[in-house]
């Protein structure tokens, strides 16, 4: 697997410093955003599949990986995640000497953040490839639809933080349902880059459970339908057939965002780690359609 260049982008207006990976090369620029609780290095398989034709970059969201982490729960609303992404995209375009990101790619939380950013500055993105993004129904006054989201937030906050070693992380996660279909490299990359060493020799999650939980908790406040209404950036809402969301909610979202179309992606919610070549092929098809 190729080794990306790693650097940080200071975003003083956002109060964060974001870690970025750049796999280099020439061709259309692809910027990838990861799922909640994970990290940029998990785009490695997609980057390798696109190597030689695209310049692929990925970043750690605030509170994740090697990026800075404001104290939770404040600062972890989804609009802030989208604002971070937009500021980062502008900084990367200036760094690379390009006018826009040719394809903004996001999985789960990252896909939702990508839509929020593109809704604010559609000229910054040529295409959107959204892999099973988080899409919840619009808020209904006086009615709570998101008890499940609160339960997920509570579980994330209570998640085990510390393991004796990276090998122990792999042993603990290998059989869990969420990770059971991941390619072997992906779990190894998560253990290597999603955890940091402690002074006592153990390893702990880079994304604290309180951060992951705060993000899940704030998802119930997000009016994504209102944010993306009228979005004309062309893109695909890739509904994972074994993912977390009903295809109907994606069709409802596409109905208010005329640039988006709904497609089916055979696989689970975290497809970049379980089937990166299939995801890369869909990204490539989207970009080539624009050529």
Topology, pairings included?
Elements: E1 5-11, E2 16-22, E3 29-33, H1 44-50, E4 55-59, H2 78-96, E5 101-107, H3 109-120, E6 125-131, H4 147-157, E7 162-163, H5 166-173, H6 184-193, E8 195-197, E9 203-205, H7 209-218, H8 224-228, E10 235-242, H9 247-256, E11 260-268, H10 271-274, H11 276-290
Parallel strand pairs: 3-4, 3-5, 5-6, 6-10, 10-11
Antiparallel strand pairs: 1-2, 2-4, 7-9, 8-9
Report what the structure shows.
The protein has 291 residues and is α/β, with parallel strands linked by helices. The chain has eleven helices and eleven strands. The protein is globular, with a radius of gyration of 18 Å. The longest helix is centred in the N-terminal third of the chain and has 19 residues.
Which features would summarize this protein structure in a list?
Rossmann fold, 8-stranded mixed sheet, 38% helix, single chain, 3-stranded antiparallel sheet, 291 residues, 11 strands, alpha/beta
Could you give a short description of this structure?
With 291 residues, the protein is α/β, with parallel strands linked by helices.
Task: Order the strands across the largest sheet as they lie in space.
Answer: 1-2-4-3-5-6-10-11
Rounded to an integer, what's the Rg over CA atoms?
18 Å
Overall mean confidence score, pLDDT: 93
Strand content: 15-25%
How far apart, in Å, are the first and last alpha carbons? 28 Å
Per CATH, the class reads Alpha Beta
Give me the number of helical elements.
11
| Helix/strand/pairing category | alpha/beta
- The level of helicity is 25-40%
Order of helices and strands: EEEHEHEHEHEHHEEHHEHEHH
């Amino acid at each position: 697997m190729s080794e990306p260049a790693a650097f940080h982008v200071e975003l003083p207006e956002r109060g964060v410093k974001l870690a970025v990976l750049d796999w280099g090369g020439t061709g259309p620029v692809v910027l990838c955003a990861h799922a909640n609780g994970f990290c940029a290095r998990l785009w490695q398989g997609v980057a390798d599949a696109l190597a030689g034709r695209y310049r692929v970059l990925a970043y750690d969201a605030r509170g994740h990986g090697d990026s800075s982490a404001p104290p939770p729960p404040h600062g972890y609303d989804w609009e802030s995640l989208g604002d971070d992404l937009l500021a980062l995209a502008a900084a990367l375009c200036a760094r690379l000497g390009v006018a826009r990101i040719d394809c903004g790619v996001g999985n789960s939380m990252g896909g939702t953040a990508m839509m929020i950013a593109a809704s604010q500055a559609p000229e910054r993105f040529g295409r959107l490839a959204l892999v099973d993004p988080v899409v919840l129904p619009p808020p209904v006054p006086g009615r709570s639809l998101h008890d499940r989201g609160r339960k997920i937030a509570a579980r994330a906050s209570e998640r085990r933080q510390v393991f004796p070693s990276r090998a122990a992380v792999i042993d603990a996660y290998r059989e869990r349902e969420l990770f059971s279909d991941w390619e072997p490299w992906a779990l190894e990359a998560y253990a290597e880059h999603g955890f940091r060493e402690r002074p006592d020799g153990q390893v702990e999650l880079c994304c604290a459970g309180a951060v992951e939980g705060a993000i899940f908790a704030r998802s119930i406040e997000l009016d994504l339908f209102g944010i993306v209404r009228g979005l004309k950036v062309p893109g695909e809402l890739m509904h994972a057939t074994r993912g977390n969301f009903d295809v109907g909610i994606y069709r409802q979202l596409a109905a208010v965002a005329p640039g988006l179309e709904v497609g089916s992606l055979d696989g689970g919610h975290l497809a970049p780690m379980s089937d990166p070549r299939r995801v890369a092929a869909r990204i490539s098809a989207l970009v080539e359609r624009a050529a």
